[in-house]
Design goal:
The complex is a heterodimer of chains A (228) and B (241). Chain A has a domain of 148 residues: MetI-like fold (Orthogonal Bundle). Chain A contains nine helices and no strands. Chain B is of the alpha/beta class and 241 residues long. Chain B is built from nine helices and ten strands. The two termini of chain B are 32 Å apart. Classes of the chains: A mainly alpha (228), B alpha/beta (241). At the A-B interface, helix 6 and helix 7 of A face helix 2, strand 6, helix 3 and helix 5 of B.
Chain lengths: 228, 241
């Protein structure tokens, strides 16, 4: 019993140590995700623009950023661009994760827009609405309900990948775990606890996504089952 | 004359959907367009609402022009209301929001003014009790009546009906046709693509038969149905009557 209590004591000590930096993980993920949402919306719409030039720029952005490992992007933003502009490691980390996830979000938004029946465009146009009015009032609100689940899942992925920015010395959850493990040689306990804290966050978010999905279902419209 | 179509050609790649069609329609006239599937009758309606592009010829709707140089698409769409076979209601909006939306963003009507117009029109199509329902909760006939109200809310001078009863269960066809008859009686200019021969006979001022992208025959309904002159028209009528 004393062994168990000892183990528990060690783990709770680590927990209290790590919980003090967990807000950095949250902050990085949230800011990066907000950036990803903006990039995703802009490039997702640009991807289906009628202008070929705009379309190919968006295509290039999506393909390049999805084709490069996030770790390399982080190095590029921090060390690479660091040669020219003095980027704070926090800013560099958020930018790298943000634009990378922006590419994934762009594809999600694009597929969400394209999933809407073309008849919806035609009905809106026949009422005299412009392309932008149609997008804003008809297409995006319906797409939103389609992309809410995959889009929110990207946030969970984003939260996990935020651990990669520890490599440039940003003191978030993973970085703090490494420090603790190195200092006290408690690798097993520390990484176990780091994993548990990530897991608590991701599992909570998963449940939240499920709720969101239900909340935004369209009445009598395929997204969720209706039992009358 | 409110619609004047001159020699329009509409192609989809190799396929010629409309082959040099000319047609003029008077104020308040009800024109029913018949023809086998793939004949171009829907394309003709869609050209009138600039949903398809024409390669040559010109369309003049109440003074607004579509041809190679003039594309007054927006103005024309304001003049012309359209109802589709597949309803195309906005599923994320309630019935009254469906009718309100374009009034607000296109016609720039105030909230109260739009709501007043919508309520009046929904009364007219006998859906006053469904204003807060979502399209997914309505029957096909109800959906189509909302779609008609939504188009009418923009105060169009012309209404286009593209096989609006083809997706409906038989018992719901009547309620939609009833609304259309009422509109015709009120003097609305209407172009109707339909397979409802009885309705065409009763409501049309003129019946047009289109085949392979050309107008093959046009006549008043009595003449058209009892004494068609063209062999293709006779064959078609033999199949549907």
């Amino acid at each position: 019993m004393t062994w168990l209590a000892e183990q528990f004591g060690i783990l709770s000590k680590i927990f209290y140590y790590l919980i003090q930096v967990v807000h950095w993980t949250v902050l990085i993920s949230v800011l990066a995700y907000l950036l990803a949402l903006i990039c995703g919306l802009v490039f997702g719409i640009a991807r289906i623009s009628r202008n070929r030039f705009i379309r190919s720029i968006a295509g290039a952005y999506i393909n390049v950023l999805r084709g490069v490992p996030l770790l390399v992007l982080i190095f590029f933003f921090y060390f690479g661009l660091g040669k020219f502009v003095n980027l704070d490691r926090f800013v560099a980390g958020v930018l790298a994760v943000g634009v990378c996830y922006g590419a994934y979000m762009a594809e999600i938004f694009r597929s969400g827009i394209e999933a809407i029946d073309y008849g919806q465009h035609e009905a809106a146009m026949s009422l005299g609405m412009t392309r932008w009015q149609t997008l804003r009032h008809i297409i995006l609100p319906q797409s939103f309900r389609i992309v809410v689940a995959p889009g929110a899942n990207e946030f969970i992925a984003c939260l996990k990948d935020s651990s990669l920015v520890s490599i440039i010395g940003l003191r978030e959850l993973t970085r703090a775990g490494r420090e603790y493990a190195n200092q006290y040689f408690l690798d097993f306990h520390t990484w176990l606890m780091v994993g548990i804290i990530y897991l608590i966050m991701t599992l909570t978010l998963t449940r939240l996504v499920k709720r969101l999905e239900k909340r935004f279902a369209i009445h009598g419209y395929g997204v969720t089952r209706h039992d009358n | 004359m409110i619609i004047d179509i001159k020699n329009i050609v509409c192609r989809f790649g190799e396929i010629v959907a409309l082959d040099d069609i000319s047609l003029s329609v008077d104020h308040g006239e009800v024109v029913v367009i018949l023809g086998p599937s793939g004949s171009g009758k829907s394309t003709l309606l869609r050209c009138l609402n600039a949903l398809e592009e024409i390669q040559s010829g010109e369309i003049n709707v109440d003074g607004f022009l579509i041809d190679r140089n003039h594309r007054q698409i927006h103005q024309i769409r304001l003049e012309v209301g359209m109802v589709f076979q597949q309803f195309n209601l906005f599923p994320h909006l309630t019935v009254i929001e469906n009718v309100n939306l374009a009034q607000r963003v296109v016609r720039k009507r105030s909230r109260t003014e739009a709501a007043r117009v919508s309520t009046e029109l929904l009364n007219k199509v006998e859906l006053a009790d469904k204003t807060e329902a979502f399209p997914g909760q309505l029957s096909g006939g109800q959906k189509q009546r909302v779609a008609i109200a939504r188009a009418l809310a923009m105060n169009p001078k012309i209404m286009l009906f593209d096989e609006v009863t083809s997706a409906l269960d038989p018992e719901m066809i009547g309620e939609v046709l009833e609304v259309m008859k009422q509109l015709a009686a009120e003097g609305m200019t209407m172009l109707i693509v339909t397979h409802e021969i009885g309705f065409a006979r009763e409501v049309a001022d003129r019946v047009i038969f289109i085949d392979e992208g050309k107008i093959v025959e046009q006549a008043a309904p009595r003449q058209f149905f009892t004494n068609p002159t063209n062999q293709r028209t006779k064959d078609f009528l033999a199949h549907v009557l």
